[in-house]
## 1
Amino acid sequence: TQELHIVGGGMAGSEAAWQAANAGIRVVLHEMRPKVETFAHQTGNFAEMVCSNSFRSDDDERNAVGQLHWEMGAANGLIMEMARKHRLPAGGALAVDREAFSHSVTEALRGHENISFVEEEVTELPSSGHWIFATGPLTSETLGQAIREASGEERLAFFDAIAPIVYAETIDMSVAWRQSRYDKGETEEERTAYINCPMTKDEYEAFIDALLAADKTEFHEGETAGYFDGCLPIEVMAERGRETLRHGPMKPVGLTNAHDPQTKAYAVVQLRRDNALGTLYNIVGFQTKMRYGAQAAVFRMIPGLKQAKFARLGGIHRNTFINSPTLLDAQMRLKSHPNLRFAGQITGVEGYVESAAMGLLAGRMAAAELQGRELPPPGPDTAMGALVTHITGGAEAKTFQPMNVNFGLFPPIDAKGGRRGRKDRYKAYTDRAKDSFNQWLEGQS
Ligand code: FAD
């Protein structure tokens, strides 16, 4: 029988190993810790939580990450099983005792008869055998360079530069309008690809004041060593001069306010479509290190975004990730080297849960392939399917940045009017997702 090699025993690699081993595949798990360390991990355990001890909301009716918990539980996920076993009281969130959690993931893997272990840093991409690379946001430097060479310079990033993402339906289109700068584009769709929010001088000045005053986070020690390529946060641009943003991402040129063509805006904030569904828009050039608490308040000062709801807030972190929309096929394989799969945060998802979910899928897909079958991904109306569909095709490749699971990734419900309350609508999404996920599981049994 053939072996499956998995590189990285983090959230994704641990889950992938568990799924494949349970399917009867012999797994070799390669992990460099504790021999080689990262700046964030503290132990040699598998599935170490490097920062917060929370898997976020556990509400599987009205929250997309809660729905993802449910799906991982339904698929016998090891990460969810151990998280629930070591749960700590935290309201609606699934918080865990991190030591006990990663210890029991480690024990479960070490006790599995189909899994063996190699303590080493993998430094190149193998040309033969079946492999899953799940080396995470802190992929070792040598391996990162090897992936960069195989994928092309521009297709592996060492930092994310996440601009906030807004649910399109929460943008006030009586204030904002659709237009590309200088009406550029071949088609009507391209000429109206951006949503523009105009600012008066007073609004701009107040916005700059708020940016300068907002609470910011710092890089971790060791995080920027030799990597940071100078992608500036907006608040740093504002610190360089009050006019800098007005001559940068907020420049008002080439745009005419459809609601008030006579008045020239003093500054314009642009939002760009972020997914094929057109449900999500990112604020162009607004990567930031403002704290989450400060971000929503500052961004809601932008005319047209007063009621905005955010699918994801902005950030900048050390984060190794590939341009999955161009590099991976729907089976999470590297198109140029189909013996290699990628899973976890390196595929451009963000967070413990999302990473483990992509490990679950990659592990099952690889196991099926080794057994001579092809396992299709779960439907795009499931949380897991929505996420993998986004990274392997639905996301805009040119501006691809890591993504959390959220309802904006799901095919919309209620397209033809009928305004249900938001809460009812979320329940409709998760009901539909559960049915669809169960069908996907049944197809495998
Ligand atoms: P990891 O869990 O990082 O696992 C990757 C594994 O691969 C590691 O064990 C590493 O040692 C190993 N490895 C790397 N290179 C090699 C190699 N060449 N050979 C062999 N092994 C290798 N997410 C949250 O949800 N909440 C948070 O609060 C949070 N805080 C974070 C703080 C920091 C500083 C960082 C860097 C990330 C944070 N994240 C957080 C993101 C979180 O780390 C990931 O979502 C999750 O751990 C990713 O899972 P993964 O399996 O893809 O990677």
Note: The chain has a mean pLDDT of 94.
## 2
Amino acid sequence: MDAHNFIYGQWVPAVDGQTAKSINPGNLNDTVGTYQDSTEADVEQAVQAAQEAAKPWRKLSGAERGAFLYKTADIMEERLDEIAKTAAREMGKTLAETKGETLRGIAILRYYAGEGLRKNGDVIPASDAKALMYTTRVPLGVVAVITPWNFPIAIPLWKTAPAIIYGNTVVLKPASETAVTCAKVVACFEAAGLPPGVLNFITGSGAKVGQSLVEHHRVNAITFTGSNTTGKKIGQTALARGAKYQLEMGGKNPVIVAADANIEQAVDATLSGAFKSTGQKCTATSRAFVDRAVYSTFKKLLLEKTKEIVVGDSLDAKTWMGPLASQNQLANCLAYIEKGLSEKATLLTGGHAIDQEKGSFIEPTIFECRDHHSSIAQEEIFGPVLALFEVDGIEEALRLANDVPYGLSASIFTKDIANMLAFIEDMDAGLIRVNAESAGVELQAPFGGMKQSSSHSREQGEAAKEFFTATKTIFVKA
Ligand code: NAD
């Protein structure tokens, strides 16, 4: 597919005609499609289109706006296989994973469609008995949605759907690695008859297209998910010009396994948290702190199960773990494995690229670590690399688990209520998971991190309304 930009309801090439290729990371000979390598001129057109559509769109009722989202969900359901297959080819997750993600996208659309009929403010008692005081939520105007490649369907939707239902118009800029998949998602909105300009889609490099969107004076809010380096830049620019912003960034998520844990359950969750999506989830498990009393049992079972993992083509039903999303990701992961070795961590399993001439495949990798301040224990790797630590009890586990700059998600395995309560109270993470893997997101609940993982607002569920609207307090006297 040749993905064009989508501006004011039309698929158009970039103004200066440049395109780039999207390549299957698991088969470097397979070109998934092309996308537009846009420039500032395209950004200008997309923002103008969103600006033009803003007034009529906000005048519709929530129910009228919601009808478009319900229709988009139905169309996406009809196109599920095609979208899931494109995502698996374009970023390397297995087909089962991309089907799950597409279904999640559909559920997100229906959830926010319903928001059009839900409560939109509060009545507050005024001191004057003859006055009426209440709040209402109003749209912000043009919103920029800037997304990463690791959830190319769900993340654009969990930002775009609430932005639209609350009456904003959107310019969506996806990661270049998954531009073709995202174009297919946008095409569902088009087929649902969304009015021109409500959702605009523009592809190209972050430094050019992303940055000029963030700097644009008519963009009133920016919602971003991606790396900390990019997030910090966006935050500074948005703050300087008074735009509202929301940043969801990296993680270094721990699992704690207490002496009384169900070991099989803890092993399965650690394995899935660390290696599903080839470790490329912001909520992926990247550190495990295991009590000395069960350490060797846990380690033995974890290694046995890790060695059974089938790495292969994302479209092959036998594959459990697909390739990394790009050659850059592979190079980055291998560099961290080298650092781990040079920092004297013990490589327990994995550590090598597989079929490198074919694509960016890598073995699931586990290091046994002692130095908690080493790079592989502190920095986000964003690949299937787990750092395993033996600890003396829950207190030490919690102290080490908290000793990183990130605070996105964290999980504990224990049957002891005192352990659970200590973890819930003392773990610095936005997502706290007890007897469940660190990766796992419910669309109706607030999502986001603490410390450097987030700008501290929350996405999804009711929290989305907070970001995508402004509150007006109204006082009316007879
Ligand atoms: P990235 O920061 O490189 O890119 C994210 C998006 O920002 C892309 O669309 C990119 O083109 C754009 N961009 C790049 N430079 C820009 C700039 N100067 N101005 C504006 N936009 C710019 O991140 P990535 O590699 O695509 O994604 C991986 C990262 O995303 C990881 O750190 C991961 O933890 C994080 N992530 C976080 C969450 C979360 O919800 N916390 C979820 C998924 C991924």
Note: The pocket of nicotinamide-adenine-dinucleotide is lined by residues 146-151, 173-175, 206-207, 210-211, 214, 225-227, 230, 233-234, 248-251, 282, 380, 382, 408, 449, 453 (CB under 6 Å).
## 3
Amino acid sequence: ISDMAAQRVAEDVARGTKQTARVRVAVRLRPYMHMQDQKGEGACVRRLDTKTLEIINWRNATETLQYQFDVFHGEETTQQEVFLSSVKPILPHLLKGQNASVFAYGPTGAGKTHTMLGSQEQPGVIPRAVRGVFNLVKAKEREHEGWDYSIGMSYLEIYNEKVLDLLSPSAQDLPIRENKDRNILIPGLTHTPLSSFSNFHSHFIPASLNRTTASTKLNQRSSRSHAILLIKVVRTQRNPPHRQQTGKLYLVDLAGSEDNRRTGNEGIRLKESGAINLSLFTLSKVVDSLNAGGGGRVPYRDSKLTRLLQDSLGGSSHSVMITNIAPEYTYYFETFTALNFAAKSKQIVNKPFIRETVTVPSVQVKRSREEQEAGRSGEP
Ligand code: ADP
Ligand code: MG
């Protein structure tokens, strides 16, 4: 009997690991922008419910494609809602020595930086998460459980398969190492202790502005590099044996997922694109492999990005990928590619995509939808 019980426990543990190893996939649609739609074609994507969207099928306009994800954030979704549903729930794990990662994926112009960084008026995932970590630590300290906490940050970039420090910029490519406990380390990377949220702000904002300024000079570097913010929470037991645990949170604004080879880049730009594609391409293979379960080989070692994230993606860590998409036709193929990467399931539905934004003013659209719904539920 005890053998059977042990077997059951082992199975539960295996199932548990498999579940937590999954990467949750959220998709966020940014609002329609007239600027991005010179032909005035309207939107080609819209929300159906909290998990599902539909997109026109370009092969056959009498059909739409419906995609399902763990969560779908429609264009009206606020920064606070994205944070609450996709990021806040993973933060408490950091204080128990577990790792987590949040990625913004998608083509350039679809809202990755808006989602991660946001603006002064609409702060994104990064400032909210860092504030959240400080609040959790404060609450723990009030509980007097006998642990001391410290919070610190590193900020780096992977550009052209090189690992570069954004807190003390130099052109030096930093090595990625693994210690005997299978933790990934970057010797030489600046680690800045943080005393408060405003302290974080004063280190992070100049560094991220540096990156943006460099990007306009250097051929939109920001769309070709992965910006990676690491928040480390270390807790130490006050009394012997003074156990110590470290939780790492990676907040990643990925390079644009568009295929740069198609836009006719040449020379060095082609090389950059190829390198970016290597890290992004490997990331999608890693996510696929984790989400398929089955315990097959996960190709972490095939790129710098996935190597760096090896101890914070899969295993017992908590990961979420926010795939950003844009509604305009200009983005159609990039959206389609990003969705096929992100989707849990896809279905072709035999019904035309009605271009409501172009043919009917939005107020009328709302009313006619309400009427339809009222009709369906049998109300007058
Ligand atoms: P990416 O980083 O993916 O290239 P950005 O975050 O720079 O894209 O977004 C492109 C533009 O769209 C920016 O002007 C940004 O402010 C705007 N934008 C993106 N997402 C939203 C959103 N959810 N609400 C309002 N504006 C958005
Ligand atoms: Mg960006």
Note: The first strand starts at residue 23 and ends at 29.
